[in-house]
Amino acid sequence: xxxxxxxxxxxxxxxxxxxxxxxxxxxxxxxxxxxxxxxxxxxxxxxxxxxxxxxxxxxxxxxxxxxxxxxxxxxxxxxxxxxxxxxxxxxxxxxxxxxxxxxxxxxxxxxxxxxxxxxxxxxxxxxxxxxxxxxxxxxxxxxxxxxxxxxxxxxxxxxxxxxxxxxxxxxxxxxxxxxxxxxxxxxxxxxxxxxxxxxxxxxxxxxxxxxxxxxxxxxxxxxxxxxxxxxxxxxxxxxxxxxxxxxxxxxxxxxxxxxxxxxxxxxxxxxxxxxxxxxxxxxxxxxxxxxxxxxxxxxxxxxxxxxxxxxxxxxxxxxxxxxxxxxxxxxxxxxxxxxxxxxxxxxxxxxxxxxxxxxxxxxxxxxxxxxxxxxxxxxxxxxxxxxxxxxxxxxxxxxxxxxxxxxxxxxxxxxxxxxxxxxxxxxxxxxxxxxxxxxxxxxxxxxxxxxxxxxxxxxxxxxxxxxxxxxxxxxxxxxxxxxxxxxxxxxxxxxxxxxxxxxxxxxxxxxxxxxxxxxxxxxxxxxxxxxxxxxxxxxxxxxxxxxxxxxxxxxxxxxxxxxxxxxxxxxxxxxxxxxxxxxxxxxxxxxxxxxxxxxxxxxxxxxxxxxxxxxxxxxxxxxxxxxxxxxxxxxxxxxxxxxxxxxx
Length: 648
Prior knowledge:
Elements (H helix, E strand, L loop, with lengths): L4 H11 L4 E7 L2 E6 H18 L6 E5 L4 H12 L3 E5 L6 H9 L4 E4 L2 H9 L9 E4 L13 E3 H14 L3 H8 L5 E6 L9 E5 H14 L7 E3 L7 H14 L2 E4 L6 H8 L3 E3 L2 H16 L3 H22 L6 H22 L6 E4 L6 H9 L4 E5 L9 E2 L12 E2 L4 E4 L4 E5 L6 E2 L3 H7 L6 E9 L5 E6 L4 E2 L9 E2 L1 H9 L4 E7 L6 E7 L1 H10 L7 H5 L2 H19 L9 E6 L19 H7 L1 H9 L3 E9 L5 E12 L11
Parallel strand pairs: 1-11, 3-4, 3-5, 5-6, 6-7, 10-11, 12-13, 13-14, 25-26
Antiparallel strand pairs: 1-2, 8-9, 9-19, 14-15, 15-16, 17-18, 18-20, 20-21, 22-23, 24-25, 26-28, 27-28
Helix pairs in contact: 1-2, 1-3, 2-3, 2-6, 8-9, 12-13, 12-14
């Protein structure tokens, strides 16, 4: 796509000035910003930034939830040839130090007092940081810090600059070229410091347009922007494709109101990682457990029809007249109200990505008439590499290569990608860039997988994580930890899992229970508990989790390649794995190496044959305080099964 983000914005403002561009819910009321209003706001912000000294090629940090004025600030920076760098709004202050210093940031635009406080806290460690503008003034009236000002003040300065030099903004937009750097995204960094992934206007917009063509997206789509803007997935769906298509992006009032706002907006194009779809389904199932006998019977009866008929119907396959009638009855009594309850009644296309999604979960959504599909991509590929066509959505693949993409497999089984959407470079890191980009233009994804007979890509695991069992009856067997962990997380009672086994004689695992789902399960059985740690160590909970683990083992036994990855022993952790404690990334990827080191005593206990182990762990609370949690954890042996084709 031979254009830039600001030019696309100006095109929409010229062609459809009064059409809605952004909506924001404030104090319970949806406020609409038209394309013409947005263009005016961007023009004022850009002129204000120029007056403050923002120069072409300079990095401007943006931190906050999805907010129209933060989107406008990104467009304003791009209009001047500057580079917006969105950072995770839920990160602790110290996590900002490296990206700010690495990108030599002088200017930051943030949402509110929380983000202002974080940046002021690290200001001494970031000597270049000069100016800080905030969108929401609540709580900031008495702040008196050099360089701190409201966005409103920046807008006023912009108006004055515009009055003095009315042709300045348009001249700056005209100077920018599609191959100029448009944005930088810091990877979540499962090992070491995060890397700045540099993308141009062309790379981001080319992939946004490829996705638009693939799913026939138009300006009539409605999107709910509720995931972190620092994550490239959110950025592509609610920023790059927003400008490529011209559809409406709706910003929820807060995290707490997302579910309500989802129902009010009724998006037609929806994106969420599997954990969101799991959470939505878990809440439905918890409510069904409280329903009366007749409602339960109705739900169970028609869900059986949905599982049998729904997926074939979604895939456009022939369905008998009787089954079609049954499904329509189910739609009247169950599926329609259920889609409405979930806020997905108008969805035309829904995507999930980031982690594998459970087959049952995937089938559930498609069976009730939601066109849920999977995609494959990463920060470095501007997301869109493989997408599933409407009538070829399957739980065990991530789709087919889309327009402009080539895929090949290295001898090691690693997936290599060639695409117009590949990163320009890792910022200030030529060694890392050379590691992932070949001279011929192939990108090393780091994922292991293969293309199946139907041309769909299947992902096994991260290539670096695929290991081998050493010793014991499964000596030499492949060990794919992420594959095993995802199978465990398919159960609603398991929130996170960490599997160990590489260069060991068997596989063992840590489990995090889903506190809401297991808590509800416990309450139904009149099982008292006093918080997460107490509930996690209940014998009844261990038995529940053991059944889940043994079911995973039975499934793995059917896979010749991964039968050796069955779990021999497990324990339920006394605390939830948390990004604030360094155990996960901000995109909720497990930091395997860090966890292995932090909980070495537990790993050793699993492999030493112990039946319990005491542990005390330092934790960081949301308000910044630190404390510790201690418990004696039980360790349980589980049943494993002979591999398919082997004698028991």
